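This week, look over our next protein:
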Amino acid sequence: MSLMLKDSQLNPQKQGISLRLLLVVPFIMQIVAAVSITGYVSLRNGQQSVQDLTGQLRETTTKQISYYLQGYLSAPHQINQINKMEQITANTRTTILLCLVALAIAILVGLITSRWIAKPIQRLSQAAAAIADGDLETRVHISYQLPLIKWLRSYKNPLKTWKLKLLIVR
């Protein structure tokens, strides 16, 4: 070996690639590649997370809107149902009141009619009791024209005949 150095050894700039460059460039490329891949994966995961979050947000918002919308849309229906029930209750009260009034009128008419019918029968009963006691001069004045009264009046002639028979027998 000679002690002589060549020019390429003395002047490192003439040599092509330095050792430092040879070691640093691949290391930096590995770092850039690792950071790029990590960034890309992080970006994709971030996008996926954002899509998932927006989907959840959209779903939650849709549910809340549906819930409030159903509340707003069912309110008129509920109000109509309440109004119908109030109307039914009012109609029921009116019907009960009218039934009570009709019952009172029917009772009143029944009492009046029963007295109207019972008075002539009571007079006839009193007259029959008087005749049974021997008072053959008893007379009953009936001014109604009911079929029952006409039937009872038809007994005037048999009573007169019976009166004559009683007089003859005595």
Remarks:
- The helical segments are 7-10, 19-132, 147-153, 156-169.
- The CA atoms of residues 9 and 15 lie 8 Å apart.
